Amino acid sequence: MDMTFEVGGGGFTIEMLMDMDMDYSLPDKAKGVASVTLLDETTKLEVVSIGEDYYFRDSPSGRWEKEQTEASAGGFFSLNNIKATLGFSSDETEEVDPLQGTENIRFVGEETVNGIPVWRIAGTINPSQLGDGYEDAAGVLSFDYWVGKDDLLIYQILMFGDVQFRDEDGTLVDSTMRIEGKISQYNEPVEIEAPSVR
What we know:
4% helix, mainly beta, outer membrane lipoprotein receptor (LolB), chain A
């Protein structure tokens, strides 16, 4: 999944680029690698999340560290938000509507993603509807979902637009967000184990 964030304020703009490759195993496991580029410096970050245990290792240190967290941590890419995006509730008891809170939904056409026949659906959403960590955000995001014609699973996502949010000090920050990602290998087994922490 590729993401671009431009955050501005006080007469300056900072661009951050992120490339992520993640595996998810419901209900509460994830692992992946992210490369983050900020101010022409790129850092590689490996992450493993199992329940409330969060492990990470960055390229400068090379050591695994452990933190206690929640499934809601991690903003839009938290386990809870990923589940909602794909149509699962956070406790696995019921399906949820991944288009909940969206507006101006329209059918774009029929396409293929990785050889899979899909319908392309577009619309807009208020960023406050994105889930954990975005409750106070404002603005309008445009999105496209590529939905499998045979199984109604989401195989590709595009989301972009201008977002305003408050930082930890309560300052209003303007940002431009663009997220592109493909989702594949549904229901295929994946091993996710806790790394050794020293």
